[in-house]
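Subgroup meeting minutes
Present: P.N., E.W., G.H.
Scribe: E.W.

1. P.N. recapped why we're keeping a running log of single-chain structure predictions: easier to compare across weeks, and new members can see raw inputs and outputs side by side.
2. G.H. added today's entry (458 aa).
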Amino acid sequence: MRTHSVKNFVLPPVLAVAFLILGILIMPKINLQYTGISQISRADARSIVDTFIEKRRIDVSDFYLDQFFIHDNTGIDFLTRTYGAGKTIALAQSEELPLAYWQFRFYKNVPRDNQIELYDLRVSPTGKLIKYLHHLPDSAAGANLTHEQARRLAEGLAVNWPAINFADFELENASSVEKTNRTDHTFKYHHKTQKYNGGTYSFAVQICGDEIAQVTSFFQEPGNFTSASGLVGGANLLFNSISVLAYVFLLFLSIIVFLQKYHAGLVGVRNGLRIGAIIYIAFIVQAIFSWDIFGLGTQFGAIGLFHKKFVILGLTLATSTLFIFLHVATSWTAADHIIRTEKLPLLHGMDSIINNRWITKNLGREIPIGIAAGITVFGLIQVVSWVLIQLTNAAPRLSAQGGSFFSYKICLSERWPQSLLMWFSQKSSPENSSLLIYFKNTAMLSWQLLLQRPSLRL
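Output recorded in log:
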């Protein structure tokens, strides 16, 4: 009896506390999300951008706006493979290099080609404006400055640019391009002392005609690494392949168990369809609240930047989300039957909830067990990741659209994306209101029929 008590009431919390401490100690050293912890909120960063726009008298009233916090994934990848995750995180947090930033993109929803006009501005985690870009159409008219005139204009701005000390930089290269109605000049500088095994801390200024079209400070990784940045090491490929195979195995296992029970007349499909509907709704809600960064880095020919998001959303709902729905629906239905029939001792509380018995001594027993198990898994993942990094050539990488979730100032300052609100406001004119009401009523009616239709029950 004493051994049973130790096993069930002492060992789980002890393991949880131990792995929690290990996870807290290890995570800041290996998790590349720590390269971007903003010290300012999105509203603060937007205020900096608005002040700059007002000073330059830029009119963006008819532009869509995407605003999000993002990492320099390629630069972080290079530094991680060269110096390790800990050194890379330290470089980012000290802002020795600009590896994470708030990005504000003002654009018009026109076909993507050389005639597109947009504004890109970036603000560092501590509130420095580190990029201004005005992408002009090739057909826009402007002056034809000489190389020396453009250089004086560029360096006159660079001396007063607050994000850098221009005296620490030297000219690396300069180029000029003659357009139909103007001449564009680009000047690229690199830091005299900050060198990173072929990578450099760089600063660039572009003059289009006589307009300053781009000012940006950034980390420039070596050119040969940029061309091969999509490649990963053998350890990464091995572990990614194992994870894919594990997922496919679990997917087919859940489908097989579900089909066995379904053909035996033991389960129906209604609960599975409900869970599937929840999955779809949750994904759509997630897409809405991450709309600004949704589809970042994906292109579909000459389609507009805003309409591209709807295309990606539709394709995702028809492919990857469909697989997730299939997996969740089948595994939930099969597990529901197992819990109801096999009387698993550690899941009595869950069985009570499924059977609508909310007042029972069993209810809540899984909560401490689940918390302890979750904390243990969290710490175990950090330990395993650290071991893989130390003993193999595996390197952690950031997702291209991962954003950043390690700052409460990012999470709590999120609002409905302005580009989506702008689109809805355009579509909510009187001639479109009846169409929106029709779609809303149709969706609600379809949902009610899905829940009530007897033919969907076994």
